[in-house]
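Forwarding the complex inputs:
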Amino acid sequence: MPYIPHSPQDLAVMLEKVGASSIEDLFADIPQDMRPKSFALPDGKDEMSVCARLEELAAKNRTDIPSFLGAGFYDHYIPKAVDAITSRGEFFTAYTPYQAEASQGTLQAIFEYQTAICRLLQMDCSNASVYDGGSALFEAFMMAARATGRKRFILDEALHPLWREMVATSTRNLDVTFTVVPHAHGMPDMNALHAALDDSVAAVAVQNPNFFGVIADYSELFAAAKEKGALGVISVNPVMQSLLKTPGEMGADIAIAEGQSLGQPLGFGGPYLGVMACKKALVRQLPGRIAGRTTDKQGREGYVLTLQAREQHIRRSKATSNICSNQALCALRALVHVCLLGPEGLIRTAETAMAKAREAAQALLTLPGVSMLNNAPYGYEFALVLPISAEEAVQKALKRGCLIGYPAGRAYPGMENTLLVACTEKTTAEQIQTLSGVLAGVLGGQQ
Amino acid sequence: MSTAFKKSVPGREACMPGVPKRRAADMLPAALLRQKRAELPEMSELDVIRHFTNLSRKNYSVDSNFYPLGSCTMKYNPRFMEYAATLSGFSKPHPMLPQIDPMLAQGALEVLWDTERLLCEITGMRAFTLQPMAGAHGEFTGVSLIAAYHRDRGNKKTKIICPDSAHGTNPASAALAGYDVINIESRDGIVDPEALAAVLDDGVAGLMMTCPNTLGLFEKNLPQIVELLRSVDALLYYDGANMNAIMGKMRMGDVGFDVVHLNLHKTFGTPHGGGGPGSGPVGVSERLVPFLPAPRVEKCEDGVFVLKTDYPKSIGRLTPFYGNYGVVLKAYAYILRLGANGLKRASEYAVLNANYMRKLLEDVLEIPYNRTCMHEFVASAHKQAEQGVKALDIAKALLDKGYHAPTIYFPLIVRECLMFEPTETESKELLDAFISDLKNILETAEHSPDAIQNAPVTLPVSRLDETKAARNMELKEKE
Amino acid sequence: MNIPEDRKYTQSHEWALCADGEALVGITAHAQELLGDITFVDLPSVGSKVAAHAEAGSIESVKAASELYSPVSGTVVAVNKALEDSPEKVNLDPYGEGWLFKVKLDEEPQDLLDAAAYSELCEKEDH
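Prediction (whole assembly, three chains):
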């Protein structure tokens, strides 16, 4: 019996001890008319056969095509030592560190993760992570609602469209409203964002770089928000954050991020990592787990989950959030990744990716009718305007063996000709050549 | 042990990439750059490996210790499942590939489609969504589906009922979906239909149940409960935390549940990861299918898998893509490996192990509802507590013996409770040794309680000052 | 148990000490004992209105969190700032240095228990 160690003899002794003649006796509470009407699953298979089946399925996914698809999720290099550490059973087969004395490894790792996030974002406090960037945005809004007692939120339209959808779903049954401020050719419309602020606003949320790759300084917006008693929320890319003006420097109250680019494989959508940090005054509104340092009876340093009184197992329906877990293993991956790269390594990763993006942009801008969506500073993803529909270009390019990017019109009606192109430090000169060659062919074929 | 930040030595490097062709200063305006570099650790690769290896050794885990943590199903996590997630065909694909062209990710979509169908057959539900990223997220999804159903029917519902034995996430999730939470008291350890009837009116949207419940007891009044709820068009929610007791013995869809969330990280053997990532798929009965989150995977007549988004009544998107895909994939592998018989057997032996433990313990600890239990049971140390040794002390003494503690102080309705869930993957010898050690602790508690009150003494730290932690709030290393 | 006779009590274990149209508010020794080590007190802001028996804040301990209900109606005129850094004062001296806030009364307090009635309530709850 796979994964069940009982010998026939064990079974007999145990049944006798519990006073049952068969295991089925133990299920006597479930009457016959409540038993399964069907349980027609396939028979179990040996490990080798299951692995063969999984390999067969894995082989049906195309990983061989040069790709410039990013849209907020990036194929960064992950040092091999990340897997070596996180595949240690002591980490991945443990549970939430409820018994602190027997969980110092996980707890100290969370404490170090919180430190790394605070330093990267220059914020006061970080939690141990939430599910992903989108759930972090939702939780940030809930924090702001609790802290301000207000129910209206302002969102820049260039915040990730998937996250805006997630937030809409998650707040459907709550008494809150959203004002989405349209972007201006992919850039934040600062005047409109400022104009949207008033005394009813709980928070204003922006993204840097935004969905179109545009980098901006939101210091003035956050200062204006503060004057109106609203909080400033910013979503960042943690790799770019090694270079960019930080949420702390801009005066943000809550900083969030999709942590995927720190050591998580794309993995067809997850698990990812929701990064969340805030100013000290808001720490009691911060959802989820938080590790803190303290001492034991002998005065030795140790770590515990702290501020637990905010959480669902104590507050139940009055908790700050229903969240009961964190993405602990993903947070550990992010921490180990950061330790392996170091501060300079993270900077070099961002710079190399940015340099590749500029090479790609330069090559593509030589093609007829291709231009940048705007002249704003960008990171390693940028927006081009094509002479034809980006959707059509992507489909045609795919037939020529290159995934040239993300057609922005899918999320932004009216931007059908806009294409988002992402590079990372892994992008090669050959791939850039392929990209421009393929797009030239597609556009040429068009003429 | 000092932190990675304190071990940092300026100039040391591990996996540093080469020098970039261009530097930030020549690509971005200075005003957009940070003033100073982030003070992150600078370590050699050996520094990093040794630091985290040593940290890992300060953890109890299923791999190293018996972990009878009630309500958490800490079973063994088979290694081949990890292999599945490392296959490059699964770890590399960008999640937007099927939006661009479904043919780029047929294998990945097939896993989703297949898993949904397997979970339907296991639970008797009509359809599943794999989007929820954890159990609590599944609860929120489930309650949102209930809300969508009532809104669609024009029902004015404002309340969700939770039994007093419910997990704290139930009321928290219901509140997050905009509902008022009504608590009802259990009778004889299970939901009391009379108590339910007393609070039931047209304003009730649904009841959230765990079955077997958090006391490890089967909810025998289920048929009556279903009937009561139907009378006011309220829906019945199944919290799958305890699904490991019941696979192949009862299917939620067959007995009248409308919404089910499962915890793949409990029942289906995916690792808990030190607190996540988990996965909390949600299954629904026929009448809730139109409201499921989108996108959903469909299989075309020619056998091609595609993503569809056109579901006008869908509650929308709860996750950027398909949930915690890597976790779903591992659970899929687990289900394929065990099959119908293996899953049923897992539940059978989980229940056998729990009852065996209960019988061996009944002489030394009070067991408030001492009858045949399912996969877990609750004992009470209130007698020991009168002598000064609390459930917490017993838990800490177990750590000294090399076991993870059971769940303590939950469910809230039993004083000084200890909740044991041995799972099916533990052997009789292990259970015997555990019981003998626990008896030993309880004997010591009688003649020298201070020895137990001071536990643990063999771990890297003794009991930690939680008050100091909460008051001082040292949540990061100082710069 | 320590239940001063100079003040009035609520069923939810707050006290009010009234004089000259103002009331000093705190929680009882019994309440702080139930909560255990208090780590944080969330108080209403000065100038805000509180209503008798309505939520006015919350108190957190390591393992519990509990709503704070105002025993009286009126306007908050002072809060105990010392609790920000030393919430343990509520444990150490709940009737003195651990006071929570001061209210300018809108009306005479109603439905409050005297020390004897409150003492009886505590005894009942213990059983």
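Chain B is about 40% helix and 10% strand.
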